[in-house]
Amino acid sequence: MTSSSQPPAANADPGDSVVATPVETAPPHALVVFGASGDLATRKLFPALAGLADHGALPESFTLVGVARTPWSDDDFRKAALGATATAGALWHHLVKGFRYVAGEYDDPDTFAKLSEVLTEVDKAIGTAGNRVYYLATVPDAFALVAKGMAAAGLTHPSEAGTFTRLLVEKPYGHDLASARKLDESLHACFDEEQIYRIDHYMGKETVQNVLALRFANAVFEPVWNRRYIDHVQITVAEEIGVEHRGSFYEHAGALRDIIQNHAMQVLALTLMEPPASVDAQGIRDEKVKLLRAIVIPSIEEAVTSAVRGQYTAGIIGGEAVAGYREEEGVAPDSKTETYVALKLAVDNWRWAGVPIYVRTGKRLSKRVTEVALQFHRVPHLAFGERLARELLPNSLVLRIQPDDGITLCFGAKVPGEAFQVRTVQMDFSYATTFPGANASAYERLLHDAMMGDPTLFIRTDEVDQAWRVVDPVLAAWSNDDVPLSHYPAGSWGPPEAGLLLERDSREWRTP
Ligand code: BG6
């Protein structure tokens, strides 16, 4: 076989770069961001849009219209967009010149009337062709209000056949099951479900999508992806950062709402769902929902023992002293908000019955890492004897989602020498080595998909609902104060109670 007919090696040299698939240029349209003077726009949206412009994914007939309460002019808005994207290329600088800004209150019909005028103007001046993508990036309390204002101004449906109107909604999507349903009702009163694109930026991460490729493009993994071979699953979303400047937001959220209900549930669903008939919006989302529905909803009493909550105290991260959660700006000195959660879940279906799924997340942990670890059963008989296999762990397959994206397979190998000693070694696949330079951000991917009208990576209403159903009893148990809030020093792996959750099952957390 000649080298050119061989597939690229998984650990190919950066020189053998495997080029990312080219992006399609989106159709002409105006993107309207509500909450455009806020943190999300500056940190995520402007850089993602500039990235799309640099990668050839934005058409020349594209513009951005910002809407917010801050009394900015068009020029202030353009400056903010440029300030957040210093290294962007020529097309972005050209596009920014046409950006518009509407200042106004969300309960004032004038705001939407002005927006409507501006949109008509940009259709003429820039050629955005009546196509609209709206993005709700305001505080969540304003989502329903903005939708109502848009509906009253006739902005929620395409004005002409052949044009499109879509609505992107940022998280958090509700505060609990009841409020999420209420929000859905308000949005559905103004938009059709097919127009709504709910964002979970984890779905935009290449390595989260790679869970599907790993499972369904390979004959080797799927046969062992079930209760016969897998002892348990551990999902970790660990962060080194604290709540930063978002203390007052986080006080009302907490780790369960901020990470578990959305990011962790999405990763869990992709890892455990059945193979879809096709990798399209309906195929994938139907299977995710089926899986989420199979998660056993704990009673409030069960939630007391299957969920641990913790909060960080002062500690050391990366050699630097950091404050405890209660000392953070915007946080009450006696706050009971959890910055750490560990949960034991069960999935009641043919494939996973009896396999515990442990999920944990926390801020100010020892290291930033998101991963899914599938731990296999031990071999039924160790022919080498326990003494020579002391360093042999059960096999595990770790899907490393970030920051060092890749896959690790841990297996036993013989230690060189006369004694038949075996120990665990690991085989690694690194995304960055095999696909160098493929670094589109999650927001870039999701914005582009919404512009192209592909809802596959967005969260459907029934998924949100199911995820809240799992989380709600835990919230209830905690609000009754039935579960003590444990503390852990910043820079550790969380409270000791999280360890006990697994110790009770004779298992332990991995140290990533
Ligand atoms: C956000 C949460 O959704 O995800 C933040 O609100 C969290 O609290 C962030 O820090 C983590 O995202 P990532 O991509 O850095 O893992």
Topology record:
Layout: E1 29-34, H1 39-54, E2 62-68, H2 74-83, H3 90-96, E3 100-103, H4 109-126, E4 132-136, H5 143-152, E5 165-169, H6 177-188, E6 196-198, H7 206-216, E7 230-238, H8 247-272, H9 281-294, H10 300-306, E8 307-313, E9 315-317, E10 320-322, E11 340-345, E12 357-362, E13 369-376, E14 396-402, E15 406-414, E16 422-430, H11 431-434, H12 442-452, H13 461-479, E17 485-489, H14 496-503
Parallel strand pairs: 1-2, 1-4, 2-3, 4-5, 5-6, 7-12, 8-17
Antiparallel strand pairs: 7-13, 8-11, 9-10, 11-12, 13-14, 14-15, 15-16
Helix pairs in contact: 1-2, 1-12, 6-13, 8-9, 8-13, 9-13, 10-13
The structure holds 6-O-phosphono-beta-D-glucopyranose.
6-O-phosphono-beta-D-glucopyranose (BG6) is lined by residues 239, 258, 370.
